C-alpha cells in the first residue's frame, strides 16, 4: 500500500518515471514498468524501499549494493534505528499515513496529502541527496520533517506503538466480560486494536526497547491514578483531566498549524553530514524545515542552503544556525 | 445535555408532557414547563433525574420524597451502585450516549437513537414500574437492557472509564516529548482525553473500586507485553494481535447485531422483585430483553409478562425462566 501509493503519487504529481520491483504482479498496475532490481535502479535518482519490516534490512542492503552513486535510497519503515545504513546515499524515511491496510490494491495517489513524513539523515548522508529526498517527499504531497532516528523511535513508541498496545488491552478486558455494549468512545479508542498481526509483530519487535520504556511510563502513571482514586483525591483527578485536555489541544493544534514561513539562507562547506547536522540541530530545537534547497558552488567546495522555517521560529533558527 | 435530550425525545417521540426542574433558565427551551419540584412531580408517571453525579444521591432522595406512589424514578448517572435507592419506585438507568458535552444547549432529540440504555432494577423495584421505565426508554429511541448494578459498574470501568484514563496517559506521554506530529490513529485513541474535568472527576470517584480493578488488570497485561518484547517473542505478539482483532470484531458485531426476536410469555406472582429477578437472571446469562410488557391479573395477585428476546436466545431464555 505504501510503496504503491508512492509510485502513484510520484508518477501523477511529480511527473516521475517509476520502475517497480515486486514479487506481486499486481504491482504492475501502479508503476510504469515492473522489472528486476538491476533494471529498476539503472540511472535511478530516487529509490524508495517499502518491503515488510522483517526483511527491510536485507532489501536495503541489496538496493544500496545495486544503486548508482548519485541515487538517494530511502525507506518507509516505522522504526528508524534498525533501518539505518552507513552510506552517504542513505536517508531513513517514515510517512505517517495509512498503516492499517496492506497490499498494492489499497494504493492511493493522495495517501500522503498533508501527512508528516519523517526523514532521518545520518552523519554520513550527502547533503545534496538529503535535499533530493526532502523535495521528492514534498512533491508527493507530504510534509517532510528531519529528525534523529533515536527521537523518531521514541516518538513512534509514544504516539503510535503504545496506542496500539493499549487498544489491544482495552479490547481484551472488555471481551473478558462477555459481549458488553460498547459505545462510540470505545470504538474510537480501540480502532487500531489487532491491526495486521504479522506487520505489527514486526513493528513492536523493531522498536521494542523504546516501547518497553513507554510501557513502564504508562504503568507508573496508572499506579499514580490508582493511588489518587484510593485517596478519593478529587482535586488531583480534576487537575489531571484538565491538563490532559490542554495537552491534547496543543498536540492537535501543532499538527494542524503551520503558519507563514520565512527563508533562511546560508553558505556551508560541501561535505557529508553538514545538512544532517543542520536539519537535525533545528529539529532537536523543535523547529521544522518546511522546504529547503541546496545549490553547490561551481567548484563544489561549498554550497548554498536555503531553508524555509515558520516565521515564529525564524529568530531562533537563525541563532542556532549561526552557532553551528 | 442528557436531561434536555430526554425532555426533547419524550415530548416529540413519546408524546409526553414534560415538566422540568433546573436552576438554568435555558432549560425552558426543551420542556413544556419549567417549574418547582412539587409541581413537576404532581401526577407524574416517570421522573428522570439527571443532575451532576456529585449531587445525584441528594437529588434522588428529594425526588423520591416528593414523587407520587405510582411514579417510576430513574436516573442517568454513569455509576450505578452509588445511585441505588431502596424504594420500589426506583430503577437505576444509564444511557450510553453523548457524554462529552454538557449543558442543555447541546440537547438533541435523536441523542439516544439505537444507543444502549442500561436499567438496574433492585430487588425492591416494582415490576410494573420497571416495565414503564423500559417502555419509556425504548420510546426515546434507545435499546433498554437490564443489568446488575455491580456488573454495570465493572462493565463501565472497562469499556468507558479505563479508555478515558488510558487516553489521558497517551496524551501526557506524547506531550512530554514536545509537540510531535500525531496521526489519525492517535487522534482517535485520545478523543476522550481530558473530557469535562469536573464531570469526570465525579465519574472516576463514583466508580473508583471497579476502576482500580481494571487499572490493575491493565498494568498486569502491560507487564506481560513488556516481557514478550524483552524475549523478542514474535509468536506471542502475533497471536496477541490476532486475538485482539477477533475480540474487537466480536464486540462490535454484538453491538450492531440484534436479529429477529421471539416472544416469551409467562405468568408470575405480582410482588416486588419478580421482574428484577427475571430480567437480571436473563442479563447474567447474556440474554437481552429487547421489549417487554406486563399485564396484571384483575385481582392483582399475579401478572402476565411478555418478553421479547433474540430468536437465537429463545431456548436458553425459556429454560432459564422455567428454572426461576
Describe the secondary-structure layout:
2 copies of one chain form a homodimer.
Chain A: H1 2-12, E1 19-20, E2 33-34, H2 37-41, E3 46-49, H3 56-66, E4 72-75, E5 90-95, E6 116-121, H4 127-139, E7 143-146, H5 149-175, H6 184-189, H7 197-206, H8 208-230, H9 234-256, E8 261-269, H10 274-284, E9 289-296, E10 302-310, H11 314-323
Parallel strand pairs in A: 1-2, 3-4, 4-5, 6-7
Antiparallel strand pairs in A: 5-6, 8-10, 9-10
Note down, in words, how this protein is organized:
The structure is a homodimer of 324-residue chains. The first copy, chain A, is α/β, with parallel strands linked by helices and 324 residues long. The first copy, chain A, has three domains: 147 residues, NAD(P)-binding Rossmann-like Domain (Rossmann fold, 3-Layer(aba) Sandwich), CATH 3.40.50.720; 105 residues, 6-phosphogluconate dehydrogenase C-terminal like domain (6-phosphogluconate dehydrogenase C-terminal fold), CATH 1.10.3660.10; 65 residues, Alpha-Beta Plaits (2-Layer Sandwich), CATH 3.30.70.260. The first copy, chain A, is built from eleven helices and ten strands. Chain A has a five-stranded mixed sheet with strand order 3-4-5-6-7, sandwiched between helices. In chain A, strands 8-10-9 form a three-stranded antiparallel sheet. A two-stranded parallel ribbon of chain A has the order 1-2. In chain A, strand 9 and strand 10 form a beta hairpin. In chain A, helix 5 crosses helix 8. Chain A is globular. Chain A starts with a helix and ends with a helix. The mean pLDDT of chain A is 90. Chains A and B meet through helix 5, helix 6, helix 7, helix 8 and helix 9 of A and helix 5, helix 6, helix 7, helix 8 and helix 9 of B.
Amino acid at each position: 500500500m505504501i510503496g504503491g501509493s508512492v509510485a502513484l503519487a510520484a508518477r501523477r504529481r511529480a511527473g516521475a518515471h517509476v520502475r517497480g520491483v515486486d514479487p506481486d504482479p499486481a504491482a504492475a498496475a501502479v508503476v510504469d514498468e515492473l522489472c528486476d532490481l538491476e533494471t529498476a535502479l539503472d540511472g535511478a535518482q530516487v529509490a524508495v524501499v517499502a518491503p515488510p519490516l522483517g526483511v527491510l534490512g536485507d532489501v536495503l542492503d541489496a538496493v544500496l549494493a545495486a544503486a548508482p552513486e548519485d541515487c538517494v535510497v530511502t525507506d518507509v519503515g516505522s522504526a528508524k534505528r534498525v533501518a539505518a545504513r552507513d552510506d552517504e546515499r542513505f536517508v531513513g524515511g517514515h510517512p505517517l499515513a495509512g498503516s492499517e491496510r496492506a497490499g498494492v490494491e489499497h494504493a492511493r495517489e493522495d495517501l500522503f496529502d498533508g501527512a508528516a513524513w519523517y526523514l532521518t539523515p545520518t552523519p554520513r548522508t550527502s547533503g545534496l541527496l538529503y535535499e533530493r529526498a526532502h523535495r521528492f517527499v514534498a512533491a508527493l504531497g507530504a510534509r517532510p520533517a528531519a529528525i534523529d532516528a533515536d527521537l523518531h523511535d521514541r516518538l513512534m513508541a509514544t504516539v503510535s506503538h503504545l496506542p496500539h498496545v493499549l487498544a489491544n488491552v482495552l479490547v481484551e478486558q472488555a471481551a473478558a466480560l462477555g459481549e458488553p455494549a460498547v459505545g462510540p468512545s470505545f470504538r474510537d479508542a480501540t480502532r487500531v486494536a489487532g491491526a495486521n498481526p504479522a506487520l505489527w509483530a514486526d513493528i513492536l519487535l523493531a522498536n521494542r526497547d523504546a516501547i518497553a520504556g513507554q510501557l513502564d511510563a504508562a504503568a507508573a502513571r496508572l499506579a499514580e491514578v490508582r493511588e489518587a482514586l484510593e485517596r478519593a483525591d478529587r482535586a488531583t483527578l480534576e487537575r489531571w483531566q484538565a491538563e490532559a485536555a490542554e495537552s491534547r489541544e496543543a498536540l492537535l493544534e501543532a499538527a494542524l498549524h503551520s503558519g507563514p514561513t520565512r527563508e533562511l539562507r546560508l553558505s556551508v562547506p560541501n561535505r557529508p553530514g553538514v545538512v544532517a547536522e543542520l536539519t537535525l540541530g533545528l529539529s532537536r530545537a523543535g523547529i521544522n524545515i518546511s522546504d529547503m534547497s541546496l545549490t553547490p558552488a561551481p567548484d563544489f567546495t561549498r554550497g548554498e542552503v536555503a531553508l524555509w522555517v515558520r516565521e515564529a521560529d525564524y529568530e531562533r533558527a537563525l541563532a542556532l544556525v549561526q552557532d553551528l
